[in-house]
Design a protein that fits this description.
By secondary structure, this protein is an all-alpha fold. The protein has two domains: about 25-85, Homeodomain-like (Arc Repressor Mutant, subunit A), CATH 1.10.10.60; about 95-130 and about 140-220, Orthogonal Bundle (Tetracycline Repressor, domain 2). The protein has helices at about 1-20, 25-55, 60-65, 70-75, 80-90, 105-115, 120-130, 140-160, 170-185, 190-195, 205-220. Helix 4 packs across helix 5 (about 80-90), helix 6 packs across helix 7 (about 120-130) and helix 7 (about 120-130) crosses helix 9.
Length: about 230
């Protein structure tokens, strides 16, 4: 009896092994590639956020993502292409203000996003620390970033014309101030702790900070003295 059962199981195993494996469909291969790209991007964001561009290593990114290091070259053409892909994601993702939100709401939302996704803020901070002040080469990435920030200045200017911002304020410098306020909890956590007594990444601080910035920005609509 036991020999008969064993023989039957062996036959089933042989038959199953002899059947050709189904090749993945085009859609399945596409989904696998998208998942792999996503894992690499998430790993790269963490690595760039912790070590900056110069300190990041593709081997460490591959290890974080659990993929072969060669896939970084295959999908992104190396570390520079990977960094640019993250920049494009930031510019086309959470960076664009909603036209139906008030300026104060936009700034407070940016603060909350930076607190929830600190790797993005850290990556921007590292990029700034590595900047030498020299004119960047006019490649596609630099032109795209220039267009992105120009569009943000235009958005602030449009809001100024709608009465959300006093007429004697320069939209470009106002936007720069907003970015500084957004990055402050990430780049100056020790100052946050000494000034407020709260940890910069605590929900209590982030909620209060966003609410206070909302109030501050709302007051920028008050007309200033004539120039």
């Amino acid at each position: 009896m036991i020999d008969s059962v064993s023989h039957t199981l062996n036959r089933v195993t042989v038959i199953a092994m002899s059947r050709p494996r189904r090749s993945p469909s085009g859609d399945e291969r596409k989904r696998d590639a998208e998942r792999t790209r996503e894992r690499i991007l998430e790993a790269a964001l963490a690595e760039f956020g912790e070590h900056g561009y110069a300190g990041a290593r593709t081997s460490a990114i591959a290890a974080r993502a659990g993929v072969n290091q060669q896939l970084i070259s295959y999908y992104f053409d190396g570390k520079e292409g990977l960094f640019q892909a993250l920049q494009r994601r930031w510019e086309t993702g959470g960076g664009a203000p909603r036209p139906d939100s008030s300026l104060a709401e936009v700034v407070s939302q940016f603060v909350k996003q930076a607190g929830a996704q600190r790797s993005w803020a850290r990556m921007l901070a590292w990029e700034g620390l590595a900047d030498t002040g020299a004119a960047a080469p006019a490649d596609d990435g630099e032109r795209r970033s220039g267009d992105y920030f120009a569009a943000m200045v235009d958005d602030v200017r449009r809001r100024q014309q709608a009465g959300e911002l006093a007429g004697d304020l320069d939209p470009a410098y106002v936007l720069l101030t907003f970015f500084a306020a957004t990055l402050a909890p990430t780049v100056l956590p020790q100052i946050v702790r000494r000034v407020t007594g709260l940890a910069a990444d605590s929900p209590e601080f982030l909620e209060t900070y966003a609410e206070q910035l909302n109030r501050i920005v709302a007051r920028l609509a008050v007309p200033g003295p004539a120039a």
